[in-house]
Known about the structure:
By secondary structure, this protein is an alpha/beta fold. The protein is built from eight helices and ten strands.
Amino acid sequence: MKEVCTLEVNHISKIYRDDGGEFHALRDINLSVHAGECVGIVGQSGSGKSTLARLVSKRIEPTEGEILLNGICRGKMNHRALNAYFKDVQMVFQSPFDTFSPRMTIGQYLMEPFLNYKICTKKEARDKATSLLEMVGLNARDLHKQPDEFSGGQLQRVVIARAVALRPKLIVFDEATSALDVTIQKQIIELIMRLRKDHGFACMFITHDLALTELICDRVFVLHEGVIIEEVCMASGFSRANHQHTQKLVYTAQNFSLENRKCV
Length: 264
Ligand code: ADP
Ligand code: MG
């Protein structure tokens, strides 16, 4: 029997159109993410990584192709299935500050998914929010605080807590640690890896940092100008990469020190 992948991206293309004409951001993308797997997407700025993230998380529609979650084609989903999709696929972006509405407390932010999906009462949601905060190394007192009382690293912990709240099948991290300094980045990566182990979600980890993918990913797809040019298995690492553009990325990555990021 064919194994059902958590995520299957089949022949996806995305064309952005405006008055100036059209731009092919992605062409014929094919990839899969298996249950519990961590798949990296790397590529230079502008190669189409965030477009892929937005497609997978259903923030935009593909021009061509289909995306399947647990073997079900996303395009054929009814309202109920779509709601389940939004529950099963979560996103964590680069800037946690953009994720919060002004004047929303951390507690309200963390309770929202439970209340929106009518999963439990308000009191139970508050208890769950407290547990989530503790799970990411914060505490109950933080429930009443506002986003501007936190550092970027602390806020990214809160965003990750909410992403995990409804036990998703897949979390897409789009440059989720890129804006943080190296020490905080290391802590957030450790947190993601611990939660992944405890909760078993699959990851799509989007970054321009190859060294990081070697540490945490099982496989990596290399994007170049909207096309996947290579899939690299991280058991053998980027030293086995063939494509000249991948080798260029590897050269850039070698300028980073790996030593202080060996955290997982
Ligand atoms: P990356 O995340 O790899 O930096 P993006 O997916 O953000 O790349 O962008 C890929 C290309 O698509 C870029 O050239 C970008 O300018 C273009 N692009 C992204 N979003 C839009 C949009 N809404 N309209 C037009 N072009 C876009
Ligand atoms: Mg991007």
